[in-house]
Amino acid sequence: MEVAESNEMTLETVRDSLIRQEDTIIFSLIERTKYPINVGAYDKTKTAVSECSDSLVEFMVKETEAAYAKILHPAAASINVNSTIWEVYFSQLLPLITVPGDDGNYATSAVSDLACLQALSRRIHYGKFVAEVKFKDAPKKYESAICSQDRDALMKLLTFETVEERVKKRVAKKAMLFGQEVSLDDNYDEKKLKIDPAIVSRLYEEWVMPLTKLVEVEYLLRRLD
Ligand SMILES: O=C(O)C(=O)C[C@]1(C(=O)O)C=C[C@@H](O)C=C1
User: Fold this and answer.
1) How far apart are CA 25 and CA 66, in angstroms?
2) Is the CB of 159 inside a 6 Å radius of any atom of ligand 1?
3) Ligand 1 pocket check: which of 17, 121, 123, 130 to mutate, most ligand atoms within 8 Å of Cβ?
4) What spacing in Å lies between the alpha carbon of 196 and ligand 1's midpoint?
5) Confidence of residue 60 (pLDDT cuts 50, 70, 90)
6) How far is the CA of 213 from the centre of ligand 1 (A)?
């Protein structure tokens, strides 16, 4: 899959991949909502293996990023926003999607965290592909901003507000569809949604898309090195 991605990438195919990755992200978040926040799982003083499992989670998230860096321009290798993703996930997102409490299921909730972090990391670092395609499509458009290392200009050049609006609406709709309690009668109860569609939309608006764009800018800044 990676080889095909690197050989035949177009803006359309990378956007298609981002759309498919929405499904993975939303399903992984829904999976995590099965457990309460389980803060004990992240408290190193409480769990004997947590130091080890923390670093395992970290290791696997970094692997995702490193795998994508390998098949792109060398500029890709040095870009890594996992520490920010980590911080946002544990301090901001997790409290929004889980209920308070502790059910002792630390291992399974940590495995769910890993799935979420990997899906988010993959999506956000996919910004390297998006940026490479945009650069290849119109190198002249980006060259002067790259030469003057103008972050703001690059950010403007790579931003498509209408695309972002569609992303926000689509992920909210997917959250509503994927998070329904499916029953055999026709009624569906909005209160029973497993995840709040507005939170998923906010996750994309405030964190996923801005971090993807940050990766795109960082990649382009180094593209002519
Ligand atoms: O589709 C693009 O052109 C992207 O760069 C991806 C993305 C996103 O993160 O979804 C980011 C920036 C654009 O403004 C629109 C969407």
Assistant:
1) 19
2) yes
3) 130
4) 23
5) low
6) 7
* The two structure tokens encoding residue 71: 């098949």
Q: What is the pTM (predicted TM-score) of this model?
A: 0.90
Nearest-10 crossing angle of helices 161-178, 11-32: 40
Question: What backbone torsions phi and psi does residue 17 show, to the nearest 5 degrees?
Answer: -65, -40
Residue 223 Cα to ligand 1 middle (Å) = 18
Contacts of 38 (CB under 8 A, 6+ apart): 98, 101, 102, 103, 104, 105, 106, 109
Q: CA-CA distance, 105 to 107, in Å (whole number)?
A: 6
What is the third-level CATH fold of 2-221?
Chorismate Mutase, subunit A (1.10.590)
> 130 CB under 6 A from ligand 1?
yes
- Summarize pLDDT for 148-189 with one digit per residue, the tens: 999 999 999 999 999 999 999 999 999 999 999 888 877 666
Name the residue ranges covered by the structural domains of the chain: 2-221
pLDDT tens digits for range 62-114 = 666 667 667 788 888 889 898 899 899 999 999 999 999 999 888 888 889 98
Ligand 1 centroid – CA 15 distance (Å): 8
